[in-house]
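The data layer described in this paper is built around a simple, fixed record for each protein. Because each token names a local backbone shape, the row as a whole describes the fold. We quote a single record here, exactly as it is kept in our systems:

***
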Amino acid sequence: MEILKDYLSATAGKELNAEMLTFVANINQVAEQSPQVAKGIIQELVDQRSYLKLIASENYCSAAVQSAMGNLLTDKYAEGYVGNRFYAGCDNVDDIEQLACEEACRLFGAKHAYVQPHSGADANLVAFWAILRKKVQAPIMERMEKKNLLDLTTEEWNEIRAELGNQKMLGMDLFCGGHLTHGYRHNVSGQMFDAHYYYVDEKTGILDYENVRQRLHEVKPLVFLVGFSAYPRNIDYSILRQYADEVGAVMMVDMAHFAGLVAGGALSGKYNPVAYADVVTSTTHKTLRGPRGGLVLCTEEYAEYVDKGCPHVIGGPLPHVMAAKAIAFKEAGTDEFKAYAYKIIENSQALAAALLAKGIDVQTDGTDNHMILVSVDALGITGKQAEFALRECGLTLNRNTMPFDKQGPWYTSGLRFGTAAVTTLGMGVAQMEEIADIMAIVLKSLKPAMTKKGAVSKANYVLDEGIKAESIKRVRHILDGFVLYPAVDTGFFEKYF
């Protein structure tokens, strides 16, 4: 294809648009091999410019972060860690990984950082096994007077394996806002640990600290896992640290959702888990606004065990993504990012308040972070119906279980959404109030369809076409003022695909 040549010809003599030029050059290369893939990339940008992204776990990263991922670093194997590789020729990867680790430690005030995990799930696995090896395997090895696993007899190895697989973990119940990797039976975490759970209050939806303490004393877990994927309130980590110490549990915090709020200082003091936890895990692509990937922070006690994520849990790291993480961590240390982190919370609280004022059932009557949970049960619809209908109307979010949800995890009784992405675009309180009005009108007008057998459907719905058209019009009007990656002109590509 002649995409790049045509662009250079069309822009000859004009001021260079470096971001558009980079995008065109990349698409040109992709299209030479697969026009279908190139078209999909462009269409994704068109789609994301056409819908309000309210998914709480998604964001937009910078052009610099994207460029750091798209380069020849992806060609290098770098199993091991800085200065200890299983492959030759890792000097440049060492420099980049070391920089990313230093930037992460500086950003979060952590003693040690491990930037290799490919995802938050990987980061949690690295953390789990670091704790297990430090607290279970190492003491047994010392008693056996063995330093290398390969020196163990079959009987000794089976003894260690049995102990590793017989440890308890206590985490937030998935249906109260926890995560799949916090001990859910369908996830490996629920199969490698004897998993137990703590809960939110059934009436208020707020974390019951006394229940947490009670459960800790009942279970006496090795791993006390704190963190959430669907909980709109802050957690006091100073209190939970005390509770963990009472039973000798290792306190691990999964801050994947709110890491950007911590990095930007919007969550500080007792609401900053890094100051209290033994091990902290995170993704880098949610509120932190970096590349898709994972991160582990820890005290010096666990550093050597965390660094052995390879060969224990992961194989070769992704050097190009570690480079992008280094860029993202540096960006998160700026004043601009701090202002953004505070603005996320301001926007989410404004959106929650506006929804409440319109009679929508906002769980816990508000939010302290980037996330809002809404129950649609009283409206006579399911979360699935609400999610699909809102998407038709230009709003992208996801259905989510409410505490003690009777609809189950597929249909659900609620929605989860957040303000990180729209805040990145520059939106403020006025836009949040407009979004709330659109959501409320759609949700209140929505009716469940009937099945062929005459029963009320949990999946299908009836959406008024006039409301749909008006909602799309209002969404597009909002987005017209906050264009995603404005330097990129998608219209230029229309003649090629």
Remarks:
- The chain has a mean pLDDT of 96.
- The first helix runs from residue 3 to 10.
- The radius of gyration is 24 Å.
- The chain is about 45% helix and 15% strand.
